[in-house]
Amino acid sequence: MAVARVCRAGHHPSCRFDLVLADGPGALAGAVCETLRAVLVRLDIAVYCVARIILIVLPLSTLCSLPPEAFIDVNWSAYIPHL
To answer: Model's pTM, two decimal places?
Structure first.
């Protein structure tokens, strides 16, 4: 790139953009995509862990307040004769 060559040849005011322009215009977009991908992966992992914890805690917490019908003894011999 012309600006990158000027920066290397002498002290030009746009030298602070040397790294971005020397790699091409797609380098910045690639860096942004990689950063975004890393953030989304970490967010996905966090959401997955929270969902798994909720799916474990909710069923176990409902066992504490079962309705009385849950404690009725079932006469299994009426359904399975050989027991």
So the answer is: 0.50
Q: Residue 28 domain-assigned?
A: yes
SS3 content of the chain, % helix, strand, coil (to 5): 80, 0, 20
- Domain count for the chain, please give it: 1
- Residue 17, in any domain of the structure: yes
Helix (H, G, I), strand (E, B) or coil at 81: coil
Range of the domain at 19: 2-63
Q: Distance (Å, rounded) from C-alpha 18 to C-alpha 8?
A: 8
Name residues of the chain where pLDDT drops below 70. Answer: 1-27, 82-83
Rounded Cα distance, 61 and 57, in Å: 6
Tokens of 46: 């966090």
- Strand ranges for the chain from DSSP E: none
With respect to residue 54, please indicate whether it lies within any of the assigned structural domains.
yes
